[in-house]
Amino acid sequence: MLVVVLAAIAAPLVSPYDPIQQSLRERLKGPTWFPEEGRQRHLLGTDQLGRDILSRIIYGSRVSFVVGFAAVVIGGALGGSLGLLSGYGGGIVDEVVMFLVDGQLAFPFILLAIGIIAVLGPSFGNLIIIVGLSGWVTYARLVRAQVLTIKEREYVLAIRGLGGSTWRILARHIVPNTLAPFLVVTTLELARTILLESTLSFLGLGIQPPTPSWGGMLNEGRGYLDSAWWISAFPGLVLMLTALVVSRVGDWLRDVLDPTLRGA
Amino acid sequence: MQGFAGFLTYRLVRMLIALWSVVTVVFVVMRLSGDPVPLLLPPDAPIAEMERLRSEMGLDRPIYVQYGVFIGQVIKGDFGRSIHFRASAMSVVWERVPATLELAFASFLCAIVVAIPAGILSAIRRGSTYDTIVMGVALVGQAAPTFYIGIMLILTCSLWLGLFPTSGRGDWRHLVLPAVTLGAFAMASIARITRSAVLEILRADFIRTARAKGLPEFWTIAKHTMRNAAIPIITIVGLQLGNLLGGAVVTETIFSWPGIGRLAIQSIYSRDYPIVQSCVFMTAAMFVVLNFLVDVAYGILDPRIRR
Q1: B51 lies in the same domain as B171
Q2: How far, in Å, CA of A68 to CA of A116, rounded?
Q3: In whole angstroms, what separates CA A49 from the centre of its chain?
Q4: Chain A window 11-50: which residues touch B at a Cβ cutoff of 8 Å?
Q5: How far apart are CA B25 and CA B46, in angstroms?
Q6: Which domain holds residue B295?
Q7: Would an 8 Å CB–CB cutoff place A96 in contact with chain B?
Q8: ipTM value greater than 0.90
Q9: Chain A within 8 Å of B175 (Cβ-Cβ)?
Q10: pLDDT tens-digit map of A195-228
């Protein structure tokens, strides 16, 4: 995990080659450790345009993490504040927010994403917004449930009785108590957004070539599976491991921070 | 049955509301995207021609009238004509429904048949090597993106081992790889939930009683445990059904499976919006109807749910 993040930040320094530099003489070369290929200069081989796979994976991690983090921030901010509002405010606000939640859960989000991208066109900004919007429901429900229990606790009632303002209660008591589960969900959401981004890129609806993204690389390599399986195999492997590690971190955080959430 | 009928009505109303919100979202997105007229006509079309088409499509009327007309068309199943196929969009999509349902059903079956026994066995032999391996595979299965599983299956099973065809629809051999690919995530989730549900029940007092009275272990598991572990398993199975329909888009694209999902992606590329709309609506409708059926099954199995 740390390695991937560091690699994403320091991409220009650690990449052995320029990720979009084409070199037709070097196209479809196998990885270094291939026995029959002879001496190779590319550790994980090259793709159909002679671009270095390792460099593209490293640069692709930037896309995954930028979109992933941005989407989590959008989803978390929107879902968190709506959850807070509906949990603390109750009444009509609560009804409206819960209606929106049910609406979004009523059909698979990827369809909506496809529909929106079909109309608005694929771009970096649209991608971040769509992936971000996909996650707000989870936060909203979590925060709402959390707020509903906390606001009835004796100490919150006591503060209100003593004349503490709503803002003070929210900022000093409710938000800090919601933070731990929020953090856990954020980590799990990060894994999900990274997967969603690569799925959309794989379908050609996300990051557009020549910018390297893991999903896009898998898609490009699909046509060359027969002759050059490494084009698809390595980006996918990295993607899978990243998602696995991020969600393991989430599970671990959950166990450490809030044992009551286990199995949720 | 009064309570159950009420429960059904409640679910039915919710189902209709869900469909209505899908339609509204589609409408809003379409209007947000701007004027479709320049897309439909050649760039050098005269202004008068554009105006004519605009009023023909009803785009010059107030937005609420357009919304009303749109809802009316949706109820009649009329999503306009496909630009690419030169036929009514709904009929083009309708032809693809059997393929998608076949795939979804096969992968669903595949997921259940593998996952539930695997999960039960895992729970019984908790901590064994078998348990560790199965749960490890399930964990990876949940983290691996559908398209990666699909591509790796094509690579290993089709290209290297030559067991199955790489793409297309035909006899059962064409179905195997897409079904496994699409079912993988559901399989992993169902196996994990089954394991934890069974573990939970195995700790209950009545299981200890059953064992104490000398009931063979097999019957303890089969009768007492499974009946009680069924509810969480059915919940996750229902949830996974929806994911299957969403994942069908990816799987169909990888395996060139002629279903709705692939049609939707192709239509986005060819800018055939009536088809995209119909695909989105059709999948949403299938999703909502399936959810409704799951809810009904749920209500039958667990009387406490009926409200």
Answers
A1: no
A2: 19
A3: 29
A4: none
A5: 32
A6: 92-306
A7: no
A8: no
A9: no
A10: 888 888 888 877 777 777 888 888 877 777 666 7
